[in-house]
Amino acid sequence: MSEQTPITDVVFDFCGVLLDWQTRACLEGVLPQVFVDRICADDDPCGFFHYEDRMDAGEDFADIYPDVVREHGKEVAQVFRYYIEHYGDALPRMLPGMERLLGDLNAAGYRVWGLTNWSHETFHIAFEKYPQLERLLRGTVVSGVE
Questions:
Q1: What is the pLDDT of residue 2?
Q2: Model-level pTM?
């Protein structure tokens, strides 16, 4: 029988694990519902998530924006700009129970970390909106930074 290594660290993803990330939450009530549905469709006809993925990979919004205009027109580009400028609205809440779980893990002596594929330009919003995350996590690796 082999000796088991004790668990000392726990890593959490952000969107969909620690935070409720909802593009719709940012856009609904601002745009006509038919446009929100088109932007948020699973097949991503407006390229929204493709451009956001590029930001998550480290590209700057200023470098991506001309591509959005060229590939999808000014209307979609303006909505994408609005979305990035109001990104906090896409993070309506911490998922239920996560703050307590992080606190309990810390109290039990585990080191708790964050890991996310997020843009360096918008990631700070998570800590501004939910400052308890900075207190509860020892650090976070962010794809858009790395």
A1: 60
A2: 0.89
